[in-house]
User: Fold this.
Amino acid sequence: MRLDLIRASPTKPIVMPTPLPEHQRIVITGIGLTSPNGNNLSEFRSNLLAGKSGVVPFETRYIGQVLAGVCRFDELRHQKKKELRRGTRAGSISVYCAREAVVDSGWDWSSTAKDRVGVYIGITEHGNVETENEIFEISKFDYDTSTWSHHHNPRTVANNPAGEVTLNMGITGPHYTIGAACAAGNAGFIQGVQMLRLDEVDRVIAGGVSESIHTFGIFASFKSQGALAWHDDPTKASRPFDVHRNGIVVAEGGCLVTLERLPDAVRRGAKIYGEIVGYAINSDATDFVLPFAGRQADCMRLALSKAGITPDQIDILSSHATATGQGDIEECRAIREVFGDRPTLAVNNTKSFIGHAMGAAGALELAGNLPAFQDGIAHATINLDQLDPECGLPQIVANEPRQMGNVQYILNNSFGMLGINSVVIVKRFSA
Assistant:
């Protein structure tokens, strides 16, 4: 592939790739989601624009009351009670989101070649919930392991959430989950794009899910780090960029989308939410937990390079910021390094509404911004009462939505532990 230099930066050049052939252009045609403040895109978007939080008090084993983002979707809409008992919470979320995405896409499911459908679901972790539950149950019987569930192994294998989708929907194409910490939602999208471009599949269900609130261990670990958020008003607990932020609100949720090649979508007259035009994944290689602005900036530059655009073409930047002290600061440094102080950029944050949905975070955050291509509005970052000077980006959309007008490009940041960074860029669709 020939690369033409279009702009230089102090570290890495941004380059323009040769335009992709039509069959290599990948578009989003359906969205299924459940979040703490909405169980479909319309409801989710409305609550983002209205500033409605989904964070509530939540009781968890051994710790007591914490704050969490809790989903309340209809579990029996696409599954029977027996399937719910045998499966997992992550699997149930995945089935719900996958089924809803397919309905939204308008695919004729009955005539779809199921062996040409791929399922790629990003997760932060999987299996902790089931293992904790089983240990708690056998503790009631003096730790007699004969009472251990024979369903434990299929519940805890890493491919479980994607596998439950294939079982429920009769999909015989490839499926797997992608362990990418809190960068996993973007990683699911990226895998789907790559598999379509490689002609391994014709249709994709991809994104991220999380059942994290059902494991007490995640709350205990964040608490021991001093990184578990608390506020007398649960709706104000998640406070990215605010000087008084005090940690993460753990959330569950899921967002899966349908992806397909542009000619296929056009041929059937599909609605198109946007075209994935750029992406990147890289690694900090610096620390188990602490992020590094330099590598985050490199990841954004690489995604821009693959999209063949410059930083000044991004209209909305969906930030990863989790409301941790150093994490928010590092991302703001990275954004400033790549985008400078350009006032026309809108930087927003979805975790301020729903908490940190871990493996689902990046997918939900991108989905909540996609309607901006139609309504021209960047939703806000709520609970931002006093901006931390070290997070002092002038582009942050604080507390009230911003009217943007014509939105052409959205960049979605999603970063995770062990220094994994991911970026996805979506363009407003034009033929």
Observations:
- Residues 277-427 form a domain with the Peroxisomal Thiolase; Chain A, domain 1 fold (CATH 3.40.47.10).
